[in-house]
Amino acid sequence: MFEIFASPDAWVALLTLTFLEIVLGIDNIVFISIVANKLPNNQRQRATNIGLLLAMVQRIILLFAVSFLIGLKNAFYYIDTSWLTTGISGQALILFFGGLFLLYKSTSEIHEKVELPEHDKDELDAKKLPAFPKQSFK
After folding, report:
1. On the CB side of 122, how many CA atoms lie within 13 Å of its CA?
2. Rounded to an integer, what distance in angstroms lies between the CA atom of residue 96 and that of residue 89?
3. Residue 44's CB: how many other CB atoms inside 10 A?
4. 76/41 Cα distance (integer angstroms)
5. Do residues 109 and 87 make contact, with C-beta atoms less than 8 angstroms apart?
6. Cα separations (Å) of 61 from 24, 81, 132?
7. Of 68, 39, 63, which is closest to residue 51 (Cα–Cα)?
8. Quick one: which of 93, 125, 98, 120 has its CA closest to 109?
């Protein structure tokens, strides 16, 4: 039962997850404080507390959901033909449809940039920096 604590891979995974949780926690604090600063002074503390509580609850629910999704390794449907023998699991379906979504999204973004060059023109013009800034040489 405790053999996992002797594995260096488990410790690296734990350190990685801990680092990610710290970074995401700081991100939540920054975002919640920015949003809460738009409220009147008497509501800021309550909004910050509620926001942090909801962020923590959401993170716990998502961790349980991820642990459930990781456990979907067992095949629930088998394909057995003369040239293909395989099983389909929930994890395989998630990876397959996630990959299809990423292909669709990247293709549509590339299409938008290539076929509609005027789409982001205003944003790009606002960000233009001169190649050689004017400097005074003395």
Report:
1. 1
2. 11
3. 15
4. 55
5. no
6. 15, 40, 51
7. 39
8. 120
| Residue listed under structure tokens 């998502």 | 62
Q: Identify the CA nearest to 77 among candidates 60, 68, 67, 90.
A: 90
DSSP 8-state code for residue 118: T
Beta bridge partners of 79: 86
CA 28 to chain CA centroid, Å, is 13
Alpha helix stretches (DSSP H) within 1-132: 8-36, 41-70, 90-115, 121-127
Phi, psi of 74 (to 5 degrees): -75, 135
pLDDT, one tens digit per residue, over 22-69 is 888 888 888 888 888 888 989 999 999 999 899 889 888 988 888 888
Give the three-state DSSP class for 101: helix
pLDDT tens sequence across 89-132: 988 898 899 899 999 999 988 888 788 767 666 666 666 666 65
Rounded distance, CA 104 to CA 99, Å? 9
